[in-house]
Design brief:
With about 500 residues, the protein is of the alpha/beta class. It has helices at about 25-35, 55, 90-100, 190-200, 225-235, 235-260, 265-275, 280-285, 305-310, 365-370, 405-425, 435-445, 450-455, 475-485, and strands at about 15-20, 40-45, 110, 115-120, 125-130, 135-140, 165, 180-185, 205-210, 215, 300, 315, 320-325, 325-330, 335, 340-345, 360, 390, 425-430, 490-495. Residues about 1-5 have low confidence and may be disordered. It binds 3-acetylpyridine adenine dinucleotide.
Length: about 500
C-alpha cells in the first residue's frame, strides 16, 4: 500500500537527506521539522511505504516485545493501542499516522533505494546515487535500521531444496501449511512469536535450536476502554504510565549492567515459567540455557514453550548444517524431511550493508574503516565521515528498554547540530578522531562487567572481532543527557565559504 501523499521524485540537491522511513527516519525528520519547519529535508525509502521493520515483518503473531507505553514516540501518544504489547498491524498503522500528522510524509520519496554516497571534500557535500537518480546533500542521516536486512546462514545445499523457503522477515502469506512438514531454523525473538501460531496448522514442525534462550512471561493484556478514554481526556495519565514503565525498565537495566549478582532471581522466574509450560523433563533440559539470563536478549512469551510440548512439534537441539533436496540436516548429522523451511535467523546488525555504500574523506567505505568492528562517537558520528549521522549506530542498542527512547535522544542531537550549522554558517562538521577514541574507550570499559560481555554466551552483540559494538552500557538517561546538545568542541568544523555555497 503506497502512502497517500508521499513525494514522488528526488530533487537534484537537498540540505538534509535521510535514508530510511522507519521509526528512526520518521522520528528524526519529525524532530527537525518541529524545530525548523522550513528545513530542507527529504527521506528516501526503498520500500513502497513508511514503516521500516514494522512494514516488512508481518509473520503471524508479530508483536512488540517492549511495552507500547514506551515503544512509541513521546511526541505522538496514542490512545488507540489495543494491548499493552502492541501487534504489528497497529504499530505499522501508528507509524503511517505519525508520518502524516507531522508533515513528514510529504518529504518521503518511496521506492528509492540508496546505492552509494561519496563525500566530496572540495564542495563539502555528499554525492548520492539512488535507484531513482543522483543528487547532492549537505548532510546525510542514515536511518536504515539494524533489523532491515535478513540474515541467512551460509549452509550447503540450499540452492537445491525442492520445497518452499522464506525468511520470517519476508513472510509468504500465500503459503498453505496444512498437511505440511515444516522446519523452523532459529529460536530467537521472531520464532517464539510465530511458532505457536503455525504449529496448530501444519502437520508437523521441526524446530532447530542452536542455543536455548531464557524466556519469561509477557505481561500482556487488552487495554480497557476506561484506560483509553482516560488517556484521551487526561494525557498526563498516559505520560505517568510511560514514566512508571520507563523506571521499571531502567531498574532492570541496572541489574543487567551493574548488579549481575541479582540475575539468579530472574532465572528462577524463567525456570518456573518453563516448568509450568513444559511437562517433558528431557525437553525442559534442552530448553534450559547454560549462560546467565540477559546475556542474549531475554524472550517474552506466554505460548512458545507450551507449543514445543505439542506432539506435532519436535525441538532438535542442534543448528542447521546443510539442506538436501527434500529436507534439512542438523549439526548432529540427522536429516529431517520437510516441505517448507522458514528461516528465523535474524538480521545483520553488526554488518549493515549500508556501510559498504558510504565513502568518506579518504575514499574508503565505512565498512572498510570499521573492518568488522563498528564504532562511532556517541553512536552517531564517525571520524573521516563529515556531515554523516547514523541513527541506531554502534553501541546504542538496549537489552531492557525501548529503542525509541534512544532514537529520540539521537534525533535531538542531529537537530541541534543542524541548527548550529545553520546559525554559525558551518558547511561541515567532522568528529575529532581523539574524541571518538576516548569516547569508545569509556564505553568499552563500562561494558566489561555487564552481562552481555561476561554472561557466558555468544550473541550478535559481539562482532566478528569479539568486541561488543552493539550495546549501550548503562542507564538510558545517561545517553539522553549526552545527546541533549551538539558538542561542537569535539568536532572539526569548516565554515561555509563562497565556493561552498
Ligand atoms: O533473530 P535473532 P530474530 N542453525 O538474531 C538462530 C528484534 N525483534 O529475528 O542463538 C540454527 O534474535 C540463532 O541461534 P543462536 C529483537 O531485537 C524485536 O528472532 O545464534 N539456528 C537464533 O536463535 C531481536 O533480537 C521484536 O545460536 C540458527 C536465531 O537464529 C531481533 O529482532 C520482535 C542458525 C536468530 O535470532 C532479531 O530477532 C521480534 C543455524 N545455522 C524481533 N543461524 C520486538 O518486539 C542462526 N540461528 C521489538
Amino acid at each position: 500500500m503506497a502512502p497517500d501523499a508521499a513525494a514522488e521524485t528526488i530533487p537534484t540537491h537537498v540540505h538534509t537527506l535521510i535514508v530510511g522511513a522507519g521509526f528512526a527516519g520518521l522520528g528524526v525528520a519529525a524532530r527537525i521539522l518541529r524545530e525548523q519547519p522550513r528545513a530542507d529535508v527529504r527521506i528516501i525509502e526503498r520500500g513502497n511505504d513508511v514503516g521500516g521493520t514494522w512494514r516488512d515483518n508481518t509473520y503471524p503473531g508479530c508483536a512488540c516485545d517492549v511495552p507500547t507505553s514506551l515503544y512509541s514516540f513521546s511526541f505522538a501518544p496514542s490512545a488507540e493501542w489495543t494491548h499493552t504489547f502492541a501487534r504489528q498491524p497497529e504499530i505499522y498503522r501508528y507509524l503511517r499516522k505519525v508520518a502524516a500528522d507531522t508533515g513528514v510524509l510529504d518529504r518521503v520519496v518511496t521506492e528509492c533505494e540508496l546505492q552509494g554516497a561519496r563525500w566530496d571534500d572540495s564542495r563539502a557535500l555528499w554525492s548520492v546515487r539512488t535507484s531513482s537518480g543522483t543528487l547532492t546533500a549537505d548532510v546525510l542521516v542514515v536511518a536504515t535500521g539494524a533489523l532491515s536486512t535478513p540474515s541467512f546462514p551460509d549452509v550447503p545445499g540450499i540452492e537445491n531444496f525442492g520445497g518452499t523457503v522464506f525468511h520470517s522477515a519476508a513472510w509468504n502469506h500465500d503459503h498453505d501449511f496444512r498437511g505440511e512438514e515444516v522446519a523452523v531454523i532459529g529460536t530467537g525473538a521472531s520464532a517464539v512469536q510465530f511458532v505457536p501460531e503455525i504449529a496448530p496448522v501444519a502437520k508437523h514442525l521441526t524446530v532447530l535450536q542452536r542455543t536455548p534462550a531464557w524466556v519469561i512471561p509477557r505481561l500482556d493484556r487488552e487495554l480497557f476502554g476506561i484506560e483509553k478514554s482516560l488517556y484521551r481526556r487526561m494525557p498526563w495519565v498516559q505520560k505517568a504510565v510511560r514514566g512508571f514503565v520507563y523506571s521499571l525498565r531502567e531498574a532492570l537495566g541496572g541489574v543487567l549492567q551493574h548488579a549481575t549478582g541479582l540475575l539468579p532471581v530472574f532465572e528462577v522466574v524463567a525456570k518456573a515459567h518453563l516448568f509450568r509450560q513444559v511437562r517433558d523433563r528431557e525437553l525442559r533440559r534442552k530448553l534450559t540455557p547454560d549462560f546467565k539470563i540477559g546475556c542474549k536478549r531475554i524472550l517474552l512469551s506466554n505460548d512458545w514453550l507450551r507449543s514445543l510440548d505439542r506432539p506435532d512439534v519436535t525441538l532438535v537441539d542442534a543448528g542447521l548444517a546443510a539442506v538436501t533436496p527434500d529436507g534439512v540436516v542438523d549439526a548432529a548429522g540427522n536429516e529431517h524431511k520437510v516441505d517448507t523451511i522458514i528461516f528465523a535467523t535474524g538480521f545483520t546488525p553488526t554488518e549493515p550493508p549500508v556501510a559498504h555504500m558510504l565513502r568518506g574523506t579518504n575514499g574508503h567505505t565505512l565498512a572498510e574503516h570499521w573492518n568488522g568492528s563498528p564504532s562511532a562517537y556517541k553512536g552517531t558520528t564517525v571520524a573521516g565521515f563529515p556531515n554523516l549521522f547514523l541513527m541506531y549506530g554502534p553501541n546504542t542498542n538496549l537489552g531492557h528498554s525501548s529503542i525509541i527512547y534512544m532514537l529520540e535522544s539521537q534525533s535531538a542531537y542531529v537537530s541541534d547540530a543542524l541548527k548550529m550549522m545553520r546559525n554559525s554558517d558551518i558547511a561541515a562538521v567532522e568528529v575529532a578522531d581523539d574524541a571518538q577514541r576516548r569516547y569508545n574507550t569509556r564505553i568499552q570499559s563500562a561494558l566489561e562487567t555487564t552481562v552481555w560481555n561476561k554472561g557466558g554466551c555468544s550473541s550478535w552483540y559481539l562482532d566478528s572481532t569479539g568486541r561488543n559494538s552493539v550495546q549501550w552500557p548503562t542507564f538510558t538517561w545517561k545517553f539522553r543527557t549526552q545527546m541533549q546538545q551538539f558538542d561542537e568542541e569535539n568536532y572539526i568544523s569548516r565554515r561555509r565559504t563562497p565556493s561552498f555555497s
